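In the lab's daily routine, each protein ends up as an entry in a very long ledger. A line of letters takes care of the sequence, but it says nothing directly about the fold. The fold becomes a row of whole numbers, each drawn from a learned catalogue of backbone shapes. The protein below has been through that process, and both of its lines are reproduced in full:
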Amino acid sequence: MSDPRMRRAAAALLLGLIVVLSLLPGEHVRALFELPGVTDTRVHFLGYLLLAWVLALGWPAVALWRIWAFATFCGLAIELIQIVVPGRGFEWSDLAVNAAGALGGIALAKAFRRRLERE
């Protein structure tokens, strides 16, 4: 996936998936958390790690702190919208894990960018 357009498309699809899954009523996603090893915290962390990583690779000219801020803002917006979704609600802990996951994605992207620069 060396073409930035493909990375950008992947970022858009991932963000869309995060939005859809995050805004489904609570009863529609409970089955996901019954799978072994799947927790709300892990899902949030991994989702935002992947989002920030793909965003950073899709927009290499954008400063990494801006990518982190955008991903974290998306998490905040979703948490706020969840207030009106049945079976969902705003949780500070989810927002914190989203931000931490995005930071992990930024670290991964930084390492990946360095590797690409050496090649």
User: Anything to note?
Assistant: The longest helix spans residues 92-118. The radius of gyration is 15 Å. The chain has five helices and no strands.
